[in-house]
Amino acid sequence: MAKAAFVRVSASALAWVLAMGTAQAQIGGDPVPAQASPDVNEATSAPDIVVTGTLIRGTPENLAVPVDVISSEELAKQGAPTAVDLLKNLTVANGTVGDANQFDNRAQGSEGVASVNLRGLGPQRTLVLLNGKRMVPSGLGIPIVDVNMFPAAAIGRIEILKDGAAATYGSDAIAGVVNFITRTDQEGFLVSGDYRWIDGSKGDYGAAASFGHKQDGFRMFAAVGYQRRSELRFTDRDFAVQPYPTNPQGAWTGGGNPGNFDFNGTVGGINLTTDLGCEGLGGFRSAPGSNTDRCFTQFGQFDNLVEPEERLQAYVESEFDVADNASLRFTGLYAFTNTRVTSSPSYLPTLPPSPNAAFGNNSLFVIPGYAPALQDYCALYGAQAGCSRSGSGALDSAIGLPVLFRPFLLGGNPLFKNGSNDRGSAVSKRDTEALRFTADLNIQLTSDIDFATGFTFSQYHRDYDGTDAFGDLLQNALAGFGGPNCAYASTASRAGLTPAQLAGLAGTNGCTFFNPFSTAISANAVTGVANPNFAGSRNPAGFSLTPGAGLINDPSTIDLFFRTPNTQLRTQQYVGDVSLSGRTGLRLWADEAIGFAVGGQYRKNTFQRRLNADANIAINPCPGTPLNPNATCNPQTGALGFLGTNPQQDAEADVYALFAELQVPITNAVNLQLSARYEDYGGAVGSTFDPQARLKVELTDWLGLRGGVGTSFRGPPPQNLSGSVVSLQVIGTGFRAVEVFGAPNLKPESATTYNAGVLIDRGPFNASLDYWRYEFAGPIESEPVSGLTNALFGATGSANCDNPAYAALRARFTFNAAGCGINNVSRLRAQVFNSADVKTSGLDFNANYRGELGPVELLVGGAATYVIDFKVDDLVVEGVLVQPAFDAVGKLNFQTTSYPIPQWRGNWYVQGDSGPHSLRLQFNYVDGYTDQRGAAIFGPNLGALGGAANTRGKEIGSWRTFDATYRLALDSGTTFTLSAVNIFDRDPPFARLDPNYDSFTASPLGFTLKAAVSQRF
Q1: pLDDT tens sequence across 741-754
Q2: Sign of the CA dihedral 71, 73, 79, 85?
Q3: Pair type for strands 687-698 and 703-714
């Protein structure tokens, strides 16, 4: 029974991602074997290429490995979804990175990146290959291979192994392997172009071209691709911006602008209340009966659901004979992506100003009583403002808690406002450049024995900016010592001056003020609603309206404290390998001889992080450094108020490996595969040995069984062994800086995998049912933020702050002046570590039937995956149980060590072909799941809703879409495709997350229509 008869629907879906790119494809591939396609010779690669799951050359007609194979030409009949849409519809994958998702640390910084996440075990645990060889992972927080870098027009076949495969390939193949194989048989040119209409967007479009030629022992192939993805804003979708009472977690913050201040300083203690311009500008003020008076502002309206992307890829390969029995093959890949992240106009200044700033005190921001902004605010609102005066009649200073206000929000950021950015959102670049080069020598020593050696170099470079503020420079501006020309900005220039002297010098000698109140905002930058209390339109008597004088903010003042930290990440991988493989000539009771492969491999992985001065803790180690080069602090936090400051880092790892494999045809109906691999990482990481055994039995000519057991592993990336990096995660009512440190004693994570399946091939009917199980030990993860915070703060927000047993855990947190409490956190220190063990299992089901209905060839089929369990063990940090054991199936798993894991996923379709015409209808289904978070999200909201509880979103609904694709393939070589995706324009299911949906699972696009054309020459 031929393996090819059991190609999976889900595998076919994934195959399109790079097989057809912007030109042609559809979710859920055709389960018919690739060999059945009449055009397969134009689309597939040579039959002697090493198949995924084995190192032994030859057609795997009887292989025990659960590999799915699909050709690009076959997928061309199936339409044109985007890569991200397609990945999200894979039945065997969960937690797909692809759409903009700056609000989850597992996707932060990954704009423009697409990943494959088999079994939901994490994209870093799916090994992605190009022609059987590695691509270096990115240096981002989750080290993944960016499949967007592969040119779609170059891919001729995809092979997908949904089982652990470290015994064959080494590190990273815990969940499985996806192998993209380039075309080798194309003759002539193929060009294509497409456009996708998306409501509210300028649409997506792309083009691709490829050329192949083969003659007299020489073969060459080249392909290029271009794709453009257009911006889609939160405000372009009704579901993405919700009122605060509907979803308090829906991109609302209690630290915005208008913000919250204590307008009488410390008189009577700290009591922060809302800026009274809150509601007029579109903010939400705490409802009556709440225990706080806060202004909550909506930052999602400044963000994007889809970021604009522009991408170019180029691939070339050549192969030529150097002797009758030897050939050389060279390949080169280059790809570039230009995108950005569009975010809040500014972030929270979570680090308090140091004494190096004017009125800095290591705890609170201070707006002095002499500041024109405070004087005008107090006069405007009178007694309602809550301002107070000292015995001398002088106005008391106002104070701001670092996590309860920010320089800009509802009014936008004037530094970014322009014709294309009318909102004044902060915009930061995300540029990616990838390249790869390979050289391979293959020698046929005998008719049965091959020798191969090769070298691979790959590099991934990520260049990205952030936007943040130097807190001490912001404090200077609040006190009237801002601006680039201020003579009294530095700490030294103000040494020995009394408060009265400072008051006299503020706003003079080139120094300027910054107004943090709503009176500085002319209008809501998104809605356009004017602010009736804008100082510039009121023209209050006795105050100057000159920018920087106190009421109207000056761009040069802002430009000084508002910074652009830059990070450049570069990962490189060098791989050298040598192998001997073939047939031994020995036979048992089968017609085919025993096959073998032996060999070795060397890998060198390097990681480099380079930072500009703003982001480099060696240059700006303390909040006060920009004002005083001799400033000290302990611990060193850097000068940036929110994103945090990092050290530069260089790391590398050398890996040596030996491997062996046997294919043992016991009889013509029974095939046994044995493989093993030894890898040595050296140092504290050590070595691993991983064996694997697989067996396939053909019981009859239509019924087969297959199964396997083995171990897999993943070594720690070198950047995880040292250094630190800062991410943004939700703690309490908003995002906070979380600094994650590497650990030199990390051990390789490992898994024991099991699979067993039944295969049916009854002529026109094919079906398979596979059981899979992973027992996963010591996964390398960052400590879960929600677990750390829930353990320390509990339901009350401060439950264990004074518990001695939690002292070490409490020491991980940095608090503002208000002390220990979940809403007072300014920073958290976390660790990369070997996390809790995981056990997961499930079932994959696939079936299809081919028949005829008059002149129409009919294909009906479907694929589904059912996850039985995904059990995560107890997790202990600093002697405290921070994450009790849980089953992640059917849960959102926000801020845990797991991705969203719906229990059911499925695709069902019917396709009809008649001559040049093809029509395909498909239904896609993702089961609903539960937001596992508790009372902190779904219980009484005492701080803003007067104690009312909102349980909406506790159950996240199922995600169901219906698609249709029509294709016309003419004899002239011209092909037209029209694809309608999400025909009924369904919104994604509501979730209590910032974009109001789960971007790992669903899509924000709604109904889209795509037209594509291709031409062969």
Answers
A1: 988 888 899 999 99
A2: positive
A3: antiparallel
For the chain, the helix, strand and coil percentages under 3-state DSSP, each to the nearest 5: 15, 40, 45
Compute the half-sphere exposure of residue 271: CA atoms within 13 Å on the CB side of its CA. Answer: 11
Distance CA 1015, CA 976 (A): 9
Whole-angstrom Cα distance, residue 72 to residue 30?
Answer: 11
Phi first, then psi: give them for residue 379, nearest 5 degrees.
Answer: -70, -35
383 Cβ neighbours under 8 A, 6+ residues apart: none
CB-based contact 67:51 (threshold 8 Å): yes
**Two tokens at 786?**
């929600």
- N-to-C CA span, the chain: 37
DSSP assigned state of 397: P
- Distance of alpha carbon 67 from alpha carbon 75, whole angstroms: 17
pLDDT 10s digits, 70-90: 667 666 665 555 666 767 778
- The SS3 call for residue 314 is strand
Look-up of token digits 């004494």: 355
Specify whether the CB–CB gap between 313 and 151 falls below 8 A.
yes
pLDDT at 184 over 90: no
Beta bridge pairs of residue 842: 772, 867
Tokens 């219980």 correspond to what residue?
939
- Write out pLDDT tens, residues 138-162: 988 888 899 899 988 898 887 888 8
| Residue 852: CB atoms within 10 Å | 9
pLDDT recorded at residue 70: 65
Please name the helix (run of DSSP H) or strand (run of DSSP E) that holds residue 373, with its range, or none: helix 372-381
Query: Does residue 364 contact residue 357 with C-beta atoms inside 8 Å?
Result: no
Q: Which of 62, 65, 34, 66 has the alpha carbon at shortest distance from 47? A: 34
